Request: fold
Amino acid sequence: MIYHIVISTDEDGVFTGSVKELPGCISQGKNREELIYNIEEAVELYLESYEKHNETYLLNNE
Reply:
């Protein structure tokens, strides 16, 4: 599945990303590379948590 990441930076230059299709799945990094690494890990943990708790998630665009 393809996930869309919304990326922004704050006044201190910190990158923040949120996954459009996974509500509440966010992460940050000092630079774009670190953010991408962190958000990939956040997606894995997000999906593992839902699976562990026998929950399903809805895509925002459905």
Q: What stands out?
A: The chain has a mean pLDDT of 88.
